[in-house]
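Propose amino acids for all 124 sites.
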C-alpha cells in the first residue's frame, strides 16, 4: 500500500523549495534535539510509530527518538531515507501497537455516518 505513494511522496519532498529550506524537515542540516513530543514534525510520526511499534509516540522516551533520528539523518535529502525505511518496515509486517484507549479516541474522531431511512416501495 505504501509503495503506491512512496515515489510521489519522495518526489514532492525532494523539491528544491523544501530541500533548500533549513527550516523545513527535508532541508534540516543539524542534529535533532527534540525537547518535547509536540515539537516532532508530523512528517516523522509514521516512521517513529513503525520503528518503535507504538501508536502514541509520546510513550517513547524523547531521548530514544532523538537518538534514532540522529543516527539516520544525514542532512538535506534524508527524508527519502526515512520514507523508504518506513515503507520497508510496513512491507515486512512490523506492527504498531494500539491500546483500547487509542482505539476509543480514533472511534470518537470518525465522522458519524448518516443513517438515512430508505422508504421501501411495495409493489402491488
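Proposal:
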Amino acid at each position: 500500500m505504501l509503495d503506491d505513494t512512496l515515489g510521489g511522496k519522495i518526489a514532492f519532498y525532494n523539491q528544491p523549495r523544501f530541500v533548500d529550506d533549513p527550516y523545513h524537515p527535508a532541508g534540516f542540516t543539524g542534529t535533532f534535539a527534540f525537547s518535547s513530543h509536540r515539537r516532532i514534525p508530523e512528517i516523522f510520526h509514521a516512521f517513529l510509530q513503525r520503528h518503535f511499534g507504538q501508536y502514541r509516540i509520546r510513550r517513547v522516551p524523547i531521548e530514544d527518538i532523538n537518538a534514532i533520528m540522529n543516527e539516520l539523518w544525514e542532512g538535506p535529502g534524508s527524508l527519502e531515507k526515512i520514507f523508504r525505511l518506513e515503507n520497508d518496515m510496513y512491507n515486512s509486517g512490523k506492527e504498531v501497537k494500539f491500546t483500547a484507549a487509542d482505539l476509543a479516541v480514533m472511534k470518537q474522531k470518525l465522522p458519524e455516518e448518516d443513517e438515512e431511512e430508505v422508504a421501501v416501495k411495495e409493489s402491488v
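The helical segments are 2-13, 16-19, 45-52, 62-72, 79-91, 100-109. The chain has one domain: 2-96.
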